[in-house]
Give the backbone structure.
Amino acid sequence: FIVMLLGPIALFAQKKDKAALQAAATINAEDMKRHLYILAGPEMEGRDTPSPGLEKAANYIENHFRQLGLLAGNNGSYRQYYPLFKDSMTAASLEINGVSFVLNQDFQPLPGNYSASMRFSEIVFAGFGISDGELRNDYKDLPVTGKLVLIMDGMPEGYKPSVSGFASPASLNGKLNTALSKGAAGVLIVHSNFPRRASAVTSNWSLSGFRATQSLFGFYVSPKVAGMLLGTTPESL
């Protein structure tokens, strides 16, 4: 009985593998590149959620599925709908020694900010805010626990991160995680060409309103703001 059972199962697996190999043979780099360039092209407008560009991208994928003759798996639809939670920014302010700064001109909130009001009596300057093993440690001997940390955007000349991409210690994610792990209560990131590179964050989308972990509170700031905090001129930063 065991042999008789294994025979049909093995044969079925071979048929499935053959079909998969036949389908895989139709995939080539040129086709993948063509689709990628269309979906990532300017006509899709970044595919923000929600946006006309996202709808264009969805329609493009749907039409391609129809051309391939694929069967829709969601009650006749190629789309799967799900609810999203939207957290919008209604106001933001930054004040230093009684001087108020202008949103989108002098500062902009970091992605993932939450509703809070914070006051600090001192600030710690941590260079580029990079901690990368023996390669570089901008936090060496700096007491930052419970304090506001000021760091520069980018990375210093000649430094090569041990990890590239999103996980790099020099990326925004890497710097925020480092500051959080050091105990910082907030962070300000200086952009030399502010505000061109630091786009305004007005809302965040998530699958639910619950956050298992809290992100580090902070702002992007201009050299003007950083200069006032450090008692120097923006040009010297």
Notes: The chain is about 30% helix and 15% strand.
